[in-house]
Amino acid sequence: GESAALRSLLLNPHLRQLMVSLDQADNKAKLMRACMQEPLFVEFADCCLRIVEPSQNEDS
User: Fold this and answer.
1) Full-model pTM
2) Structure confidence by residue, pLDDT tens digits, 17-49
3) Are 9 and 50 in contact (CB under 8 A)?
4) Domain ranges for the chain
């Protein structure tokens, strides 16, 4: 399911580096805004949200 998609995303070294940088950043809010401009990070965030809050249909 979605967990397999998440695991696949987490294999990406660029995404892993973004997450390490975010974890270690002094200004996490500023870096989070920058990360949300990265399509790969947005895909990761969307995947996480689909896992924790699956929608009944894609239209809503």
Assistant:
1) 0.80
2) 999 999 999 999 999 999 999 999 999 999 999
3) no
4) 2-51
